[in-house]
Specification:
Length: 328
């Protein structure tokens, strides 16, 4: 119908596109995609998407806020989504080798890490594996370990039981998801509105915000660019031991979690915050699984505070803070 293109434009008009999008080459012909937002000359915050997701899954208020505060947001994809080639890590810790190559390629020395939902384990892996480079770690509604001596309580403990099945089926599952989601632009408004009607009440207000809705739809389309295998491979990793102990993380860490999260229960955030030595937990009353998408200002505030408190902080961040203060 004639009005359908206008509906598509209406849905996507509020999306703030990245400053740049590209890939980082990896050994074996692999690559990871990334996108940059905020201040191109600022200190780096690496932002890890949820499951599913891709390089454009950034809370709508974060890019402009980061630009004003002097932060360079680098949204790094995981294998099998967007620009990134498929690959399955044997454990979450294996992600660190690829991440090190990404930051070296981008000439980033020190950086903070932030992860939404399924990005949480990869944030904690980075904090453990790169303690001399990671200045702060923020986990927003993140899933906890589901196997091993530090298994988090809650409904996700079934993942180790289905991990072998997921590992065998990740390619057909990815192809199915791609075919289901790829045509979403044609039905963006009605499809997304239908989902908000069946979503938990605590998440509806977040998802119905026009800018949030546009971001989610745009990112899902982005995720399908290279075939959407990442959700299945993420679940495989979540069902395995992570390869490190939460007790050995030395980086300042903060967890945000909604107490009405029906996907990853609050018990995961409570459990992990109790194990990580230098960690705090911020509980969002009445917040659901998408509560992490509305705490961007608080997250950047924590990142800035932790960066300043680190003895090795670069002078550049100090200058950025002074400049921001002088502008009022």
């Amino acid at each position: 119908m004639a009005h359908e293109p206008a509906r598509e434009d209406e849905v996507l008009v509020e999306v703030l596109e990245p400053n740049l999008e590209s890939v980082v080459p990896l050994p074996g012909g692999r690559a990871l995609g990334y996108a940059e937002f905020g201040d191109p000359d600022g200190d780096a915050v690496l932002w890890f998407h949820g499951t599913p997701g891709a390089r454009k899954q950034i809370p709508p208020d974060v890019p402009e806020l980061a630009r004003r505060r002097g932060w360079r947001i680098v949204a790094v994809e995981r294998p099998g989504t967007g620009y990134s080639t498929p690959y399955t890590y044997g454990r979450a810790l294996d992600w660190v080798d690829d991440l090190r190559r990404v930051v070296d390629h981008l000439t980033i020395d020190r950086f903070a890490v932030v992860g939404l939902s399924g990005g949480g384990p990869f944030v904690l892996a980075a904090a453990y594996g790169l303690p001399d480079r990671v200045t702060a770690a923020a986990v927003l509604g993140g899933i906890g370990p589901t196997r091993g001596p530090e298994t988090a309580p809650g409904m996700t403990r079934f993942l180790p039981l289905i991990e072998p099945l997921l590992a065998a089926a990740r390619i057909p599952i990815g192809e199915l998801l791609t075919h289901l989601i790829r045509p979403i632009r044609a039905v963006a408004d009605p499809g997304f509105d239908l989902y908000t009607r069946v979503a938990p009440a605590s998440d509806r207000a977040v998802m119905r915000e026009p800018a949030m809705k546009a971001m989610f739809i745009n990112d899902l389309v982005t995720a399908c660019e290279g075939g959407l295998r990442a959700p299945a491979t993420d679940l495989v990793v979540f069902g395995r031991e992570w390869g490190f102990s939460l007790r050995d993380i030395t980086v300042p860490t903060r967890f945000w979690h909604g107490d009405a999260d029906g996907i990853v229960p609050l018990s995961h955030g409570e459990f992990m915050a109790a194990l990580v030595p230098d960690a705090t937990l911020v509980v969002t009353p009445g917040g659901g699984h998408f509560a992490g998408f509305v705490v961007g200002p608080d997250v950047l505030g924590f990142v800035d505070e932790a960066w300043t408190d680190r003895a090795h902080r670069p002078a550049k961040r100090t200058r950025t803070r002074r400049a921001a203060a002088s502008k009022g």
